[in-house]
Design brief:
The protein has 57 residues and is mainly α.
Length: 57
C-alpha cells in the first residue's frame, strides 16, 4: 500500500490534533507516510538513486 491509501485515516487522526490550518495538509501527508512506512525525507530516494548508479558510486 502507498501513503495515498492512508490519507483518509490520517485526516481523521490529524483532525484531533491542534494543527494550524496552513500546516494541516502537510501534517496529514506526513502522518499518512508514517502509517505507510514511507520515508519522510524527499532527498532519501534521490540520494539512494545516486548511490545505486555506478557512475556516481
Amino acid at each position: 500500500m502507498t501513503y495515498e491509501d492512508y490519507i483518509a485515516e490520517a485526516m481523521e487522526i490529524v483532525a484531533a490534533w491542534e494543527v494550524p490550518p496552513e500546516d494541516f495538509a502537510q501534517v496529514v501527508n506526513d502522518q499518512a507516510k508514517i502509517m505507510a512506512g514511507t520515508d519522510l525525507d524527499p532527498w532519501h530516494d534521490l540520494l539512494q538513486d545516486c548511490r545505486d548508479t555506478p557512475q556516481y558510486a
